[in-house]
Specification:
- This protein starts with a helix and ends with a strand.
- It has a 6-stranded mixed β-sheet with strand order 4-3-15-8-9-12.
- It contains 6 helices and 18 strands.
- The protein has a single domain (about 15-235), classed as Fumarylacetoacetate hydrolase, domain 2.
- A hairpin with a 6-residue loop joins strand 1 (about 20) and strand 2 (about 30).
- The protein is α+β, with helices and mostly antiparallel strands.
- The chain has helices at about 5, 45-50, 120-130, 135, 150-155, 185-195, and strands spanning about 20, 30, 35-40, 60, 65-70, 70-75, 80-85, 85-90, 110-115, 120, 145, 150, 160-165, 170-175, 200-205, 210-215, 220-225, 225-235.
- The chain is globular.
- The structure holds manganese (II) ion.
Length: about 240
């Protein structure tokens, strides 16, 4: 047997299926490769979190299989302060390195609404101790997203209102036009650190009004012209 054939042997166990998100208006699925996130990208949210304005974007990531498209999110263990963050999500159809700002939107397949779920108590502790955010941000089901709306269907949302309600009460209201770093700027900057590829999702930061969720809460998040998602938080 050649080395090539040797390397095509059976897996020692079945690999998980690729995480995927529905594409609006078609039967096609978007396979998720990586999930990147931007911290503090709206001035008013940066203010409520006590961070300063227009610093270079702060990037972190979630595992691809943190993406969640169901209607019941389990309250995660090891936290007493689970927060919602409504965000515009960019879905890349191609990528590259050192992408110029002027070419960045050509890489976008589409957009979704998403919620960057956060163990705020663990994040606060990590910040205080100068430790990584993994346990605060990268847990199972921490990235609920809507179906993806193709850019070719509805263009690029520049001044879309973004909303999140809990139990039909207003929690977050914002506009994607208020982002400190625009979508093209985010893609360009991120591509200086990582080779971006088709299948990458980018959570672009949250407007003000983040707050705690408890088991039983009903969350509804939507972005005009992009999409909406809703889920219930179930008991731990
Ligand atoms: Mn966020």
């Amino acid at each position: 047997m050649s080395r090539m054939e040797d390397s095509q042997g059976e897996y020692v166990f079945s690999p998980e299926t690729t995480p995927q998100v529905r594409v609006r208006g078609s039967a096609a699925m978007f396979p998720v490769r990586r999930i990147y996130c931007v911290g503090s990208n709206y001035r008013e949210h940066a203010r409520e979190m006590g961070t300063s304005l227009r610093e270079p974007p702060c990037f972190f990531s979630k595992p691809a299989n943190a993406v969640f498209t169901g209607d019941a999110v389990p309250y995660p263990p090891m936290t007493h302060n689970l927060h919602h963050e409504a965000e515009l999500v960019v879905a890349l159809g191609s990528g590259g390195v050192n992408i110029p700002v002027e070419q960045a939107l050509e890489k976008v397949f589409g957009y979704a609404a998403g919620v960057d779920l956060t163990r705020r108590d663990l994040q606060a502790e990590a910040k205080k101790q100068g430790r990584p955010w993994s346990t605060a941000k990268s847990f199972d089901c921490s990235a609920p997203v809507s179906a993806i709306r193709r850019a070719s269907d509805g263009g690029h949302p520049e001044n879309a209102s973004i909303r999140l309600d809990v139990n039909e009460e207003i929690r977050q209201r914002g506009n994607t036009g208020d982002m400190t770093w625009s979508v093209p700027e985010i893609i360009a900057e991120l591509s200086r650190y990582f080779e971006l590829k088709a299948g990458d999702l980018i959570f672009t930061g949250t407007p003000p009004g983040v707050g705690a969720l408890v088991p039983g809460d009903r969350v509804d998040c939507s972005i005009d012209t992009v999409g909406s998602l809703g889920f219930v938080v179930t008991g731990s």
